Amino acid sequence: MANLDIFDSFSAMALPLRIGLLVYPHCMPAGLLAFSDLLHAANRRAGRAIFATRYVAAQPTEVNYGQGLSLHVSDAFNDTELDAVMVPGFWAESTSQIERVLGANADLIRTLAAWDRSKRLWGYCTGVCLLAASGRLNGQPATVTWWAAEAMDRHYGKVRWQVEKSCIVNARTATASGVGGYLPIAQALIERHVSAEALHDLARLMVLPRPVQAHEAFLAMSLIEQGSPMLRRLHDLVAQFPAESITVARLADALGMSARTLARKATAETGVSIAEYARRIKLNQAGERLILTSAPVSTISADLGFSSDSNMRRMFKSLTSMTPAEYRRKFSRQL
C-alpha cells in the first residue's frame, strides 16, 4: 500500500470529501469509474456519505473516448468546490507520445499549476506526467510508471522521483504507477475515513486485487522487461533451469555462443555479472512464490532447484535484507 503518512495527509479533510474526477481528451476513464465505484461502495458500507465524487474538466465539455463512449462534463474544476482532484492516465506507449499529449494539453497543465495550493492533487499512471509538467510535484517525492521514469527525470528534475515505489502520498499530492494506480489511493482513503475492517470487507466482497508491491532488488526482473532478444532468451533459460545446475557454460551452449561472449554481453546489458543476474532471477522466482502462494519455503527452494533450503534462505536475505518469512508477511497478495 502507499506510504503510511497517507493517513496523516488525509486526516485534516472535512467530511464528506469532495473529490473531482478529471476528464480530458485522450484520458483513460476506466480507472476513474472504478475509483468512484469503490468510494460509493465505501459509502454504502458506512451507511453515510463520506466521499462525494463528481466529474470535472478544465472547461465544461463533452469528451469522446471512442468505442461508443462519450462523457458530458458540465463542471469546470476551477469553478467547483472540491477538496481534491484525481488525474487519470492517458493513452501512450512511448515517451514521444507522452510529449505530444502534454503539448496538446498545455491549457490543462496551466490550470493545474494555478489551482488552489491548499487543495490536493492526485494522479496515477501517465496522469502523473501532467502533474509533473504543472510543477505541482516540484521538491516532493513522487513515483510514475516505470517506462516513463527516465524521461520524467530528464524533463522534470526538480521532482524527487522514487520509481521503486508504487504509490507515494504527500500532504498535498499523491502519485501512483500503472493503470491500476487509483486502487492504493482509494484503499488508503477508505481505511482512513471508514475503517480497516470496512476495507477488508470490500476487498473480500468485491474480490479486489491487492496493489502489486515488489522489493527494489527485483525491479525490472520480469521476462517482459528484458531489453533485448538475447537477454529475454537468457532470462527464460535461467528461469527454466534448476538453480543448482546453472553455469555460464551451460547457458552459453544453449544460446549458441561462447561462455566469454555471453558473459561480456550479459554484463554490458545488465550491469552485473551473469552469475549475479542469474541469482536474482531465481530469487525473484522464489519471491513471487512467497507472495502468491502459501507453499513452505522448503518446498519453494526444492522446486526451484536450490542446493539446500538454508542456502536459498541465506542468498535471499543477503539480497533483500529480509528473511523469506518477513518478505511474505510484507508483500503477500493473499487475502
For the record, give the distance between the C-alpha atoms at the N and C termini, rounded to a whole number: 14 Å
Spatially, the strands of the biggest sheet line up as 2-1-5-6-10-9
| Known CATH architecture of the largest domain | 3-Layer(aba) Sandwich
Unreliable segments (pLDDT under 50, ≥5 consecutive)? 1-8
Specify the CATH class of the largest domain.
Alpha Beta
Molecular structure report:
The chain has 335 residues and is an alpha/beta fold. The chain has 2 domains: 6-205, Rossmann fold (3-Layer(aba) Sandwich); 216-331, Arc Repressor Mutant, subunit A (Orthogonal Bundle), CATH 1.10.10.60. The protein has 15 helices and 10 strands. Helix 6 links the parallel strand 7 (141-142) and strand 8.
What is the secondary structure topology, with strand pairs?
Blueprint: H1 6-11, E1 17-22, H2 30-46, E2 51-56, E3 61-66, E4 69-73, E5 84-87, H3 95-104, H4 106-114, E6 120-124, H5 127-134, E7 141-142, H6 149-155, E8 160-161, E9 167-169, E10 173-176, H7 182-193, H8 196-205, H9 229-240, H10 248-255, H11 259-270, H12 274-292, H13 297-303, H14 309-320, H15 324-331
Parallel strand pairs: 1-2, 1-5, 5-6, 6-10, 7-8
Antiparallel strand pairs: 3-4, 9-10
Offer a quick outline of the entry:
With 335 residues, the chain is α/β, with parallel strands linked by helices. It has helices at residues 6-11, 30-46, 95-104, 106-114, 127-134, 149-155, 182-193, 196-205, 229-240, 248-255, 259-270, 274-292, 297-303, 309-320, 324-331, and strands spanning 17-22, 51-56, 61-66, 69-73, 84-87, 120-124, 141-142, 160-161, 167-169, 173-176. It contains 15 helices and 10 strands.
